Amino acid sequence: MSAGAGPLARVGRVVCIVLLAVLTAVAACQSKTQDPDGPTVEEKLTEAGLRDENRPAKLRIGVYDWQPLLGYVADGRNEGFDIDVARYIAANLGYVGDDKIEWVPIDNVADRLKFLLQDKVDLVVASLSITEERKRSIAFAGPYLVIEQSVMVPEELKSEITTLQDLVDPRYKVCTSTASTSEKLLAERRVPFVARNSDKECFEGMQKGLYQAMSTDRSVLFGFQSEHEDQFQVLDLKLATASNPGVEEIGIGVSKKNPALRELVDYYLYKSYAADRRGEVTAWRQSFAEHLSVLGALDQPEPHDHPDLVDSDAKYPTR
Description:
Pfam families: SBP_bac_3. This protein is of the alpha/beta class.
């Protein structure tokens, strides 16, 4: 009997050890869920000042209201891809509906940074490319879109201007916005150009015949073309150089004085990115299909710096 009991006893001990390990793991998980390891979304909302009763009742977001497809006004309502991204972020921060958002119109490139530095807005969602120069002044969340630079010309010139070298011809004046990726690329390509305060100024100049070409993000160019399809043509010209890929990462501008807000925006951009990767229907995907399908198949990019936060609907978000 004693010889036969030995193996059974050993098996019993193994079962007990395994069971104890399982129970310990379950208890640890329960303890971790009840006492999360790491900052929570609610803590970051408080740290960002969004739970302060004395702060403005609305989230102030700087946007363009003149950029077709991206940020414009239709029937008194802000619309466009950038606007939908802004609404998604605002809703997750607790500002659900346009009655909880103050849309602050931005007229030119310089005002995007200026409004953040002057505390006129909480966020800027206005085709704002992430650059090292701008990082010295403001913080960025994202990117939420990665887009190439290109060139648009009047319809009657599309057969004359087919290469970048054609733009060197003194008969053609090229316009781009100040401190843009296109400005740097045109300079590297030794294409003469005129720099203006905004893409809007360049486009209005083209309509008046002052310029024969303009260069900026493809999304912006297709936006202008969408309202004047018979008058302008977006060319498939590659501006990239050996040192500059000719691609802009579009992000959301945040004040450097509020790092918690930047973390929250990046966190929710990442949640959208992760859901898109899983094949779920997201606000980003729906808006892209509605406004920017002309760009072809693009996926939401992964934010560069997304924190691990404990959220009410996802105790332990994984990367």
